[in-house]
Amino acid sequence: MAHFVIMGCGRVGATLAHTLMQDGHSVAIIDRDASAFRRLSTDFDGLTVTGVGFDRDTLLQAGIEDAYAFAAVSSGDNSNILATRIAREVFHVEHVVARIYDPGRAEVYQRLGVPTVASVRWSADQVLRRILPEHTLSGDFREASGRLVLRELPNAESWYGSTIAGLEEAAGVRIAYVTRFGEGILPTPETRYQRGDVLHAMVAVKRIEAVDRILAHTPEWAARQLAEQEDLGRPDESTAPGATEKEKRS
């Protein structure tokens, strides 16, 4: 069970709080208007904190120091960005996301290293995909046999600057499209992965853990693993770079 802090108890914030609570996580939700908490169901057993979401004391009261993720989904773009940056830069929360109403600001925010989602009807689902990695395991699309899934790859800072072709070869995936500055683009083999990009890839379901492990290491590490496998005559895919011990034994 992880702890999540949400700023903003509007429709999206309340939906997030209920979804996370139902998944067994602990939740604290912040809003400057105490009446906003009336959107929460009577069985909500998380923490409600009345205050400004970018105030240090308010965040501490919400348990930000123990938070796995922070989502700023209030009605103000500037407040959301400020709160998200404080959560990441002051309290070192790894998983953060800010909801924005002005898509024209997306490029600026992503250059600041702040993942954003647009204000659309499915905002709650988009936020969950940023702060709850397991929420992406089911993927956006699964082909008929169930062996392949389109999923959002985890952020991989050590791979920034790598070409899409090089990343595909190392991880054993096919990049379907890239979300850059809030817009989807079709990458070429020469396209380079940069900070703020979100990669959407077709992945073999049985290799999801292996792919995540590769991206958690450096390209140099992945290259060494590939070279070692080539020297050994290229074993089957279960022993590809990043394969888990369980996969290797199966």
Main features:
250 residues, alpha/beta, six-stranded parallel sheet, five-stranded antiparallel sheet, 9 helices, elongated, disordered C terminus
Main beta-sheet strand count, sense and barrel state: 6 strands, parallel
The helicity comes to: 25-40%
Structural class: alpha/beta
Outline type: elongated
Strand order of the largest sheet: 3-2-1-4-5-6
SSE pattern, N- to C-terminal: EHEEHEHEHEHEEHEEEHHH
Could you tell me the mean pLDDT?
Answer: 83
Cα separation of the termini? 29 Å
- Proportion of residues in extended strands: 15-25%
Q: Give me the number of helical elements.
A: 9
Radius of gyration: 20 Å
Number of strands: 11
Uncertain segments are 244-250
Give an account of the 3D structure.
It is a single chain. With 250 residues, the protein is of the alpha/beta class. It contains nine helices and eleven strands. Helix content is 32%, strand content 21%. The strands form two sheets. It has a six-stranded parallel beta sheet with strand order 3-2-1-4-5-6, sandwiched between helices. The protein has a five-stranded antiparallel beta sheet with strand order 7-8-11-9-10, with no helix packed on it. The model is unreliable at 244-250 (pLDDT under 50).
Provide a brief overview of the structure.
With 250 residues, this protein is of the alpha/beta class. It has helices at residues 11-22, 56-61, 77-89, 106-111, 123-131, 164-171, 208-216, 219-231, 245-249, and strands at 3-7, 26-31, 47-50, 69-72, 95-100, 116-118, 141-142, 148-152, 174-180, 183-185, 198-204.
